[in-house]
Amino acid sequence: MARIIDRYIFGEIFFPFVMSLFILTFVLLMGRILQLMDLMINKGVGLVETMRLVLYLMPPFLLITIPISLLIAILIGVGRMSADNEITALKSAGTSLYRIMTPVMGGAVIAAVITAVIGLYFVPYGMTATSDLLFAIARQKASIGIKEKVFNDDFKGLVLYADTIPVHGDYMEGLFISDTRLAKDPTTIVAEKGYLVSNPESMTVTLRLKNGSTHSVNSDLTSYRRVDFSSYDVNLDLSGPITKGGMDARKDTEEMYLGELFEQAKTTDMAPSLKRELIIEINKKFTIPLSCIIFAILGLPLSIGQVRSGKSRGFTIGILVIMVYYVLQLSGEGLGETGKISPVIGTWAPNVILGITGICLFIMAVREKPISFGAITRPVEKAIISLLRRWRKRSG
User: Fold this and answer.
1) Within this chain, do residues 301 and 337 fall inside the same structural domain, yes or no?
2) Contact between 223 and 142 (Cβ < 8 Å)
């Protein structure tokens, strides 16, 4: 009998969870659709590469949508059961809220494990793979975008003309380049040959020129300078819609695995702001999965006792809880990054505040006490006041 109840409650949560996850992830992905369409239409990127980019972008989105979808699913599923008096019937049959919580918590643990695996492994892999793929696309653009006897202005601050490009395309001959990257000292470069050299480690593409000269005139047109060279490197700026605003060999914190974050955090000659950023990212690897458990504890008491409009009310309550959680999260991370509070406190505060609130509400639901709005906000207010007092002591 208990297994039947568990499967029934789990099924009531599972289907709203899948639908919410699909819709929310699709909404977040829509923000990148224009960039992806620009890749396909204007940059000539193939469908396979575009789909790979979509796949690599999914893990960071899932970190956000899995906890949110779980909360909404609990509020909708259990709320529907409460609105149809099924929770009352179960309690009349001797099933306690602790027993009803078992399948809900089981689903939350599964969601937390999946979220942890995504955050620890798939997000760093996806971010790194995205950078590598974007660099490969940019490098391909540089190599196939240059046509002979055509003035090419795809590279920021450069206009490039190649008189001859052999069929195999390994090099270019008769190069003429207008370099305006230094506005006060524009330069014209002429070279016999040029080769494109890419460096995947530093994420750069260089045009290596052979046997040529540079020509420049100062701003008031009073002097002319010529420099002959046998070899001259011109770094090509590949920034634009298909890059991250410029190639950077240094990994972002989101691209690092947990071990790399710990190694970086141990560095002694690091700027305090960067160290705080690393500490925040390390703690987020644990706080985001734990939010699934927190949302489960908070969602069950909020969904019990709903009126007939259980689904719409559940969705509304879910949005409000999510807004409170992410406002606390952004505020805590902001204060932690600026050093006004400890980064550990800033990242863990939302889970602690909502966790305590959820436990209080669950105990009230077990004792069948009415849950008022004041009962929901009072623990949050106390926690915020406590944080503000601690911050004043540190700053004072």
Assistant:
1) yes
2) no
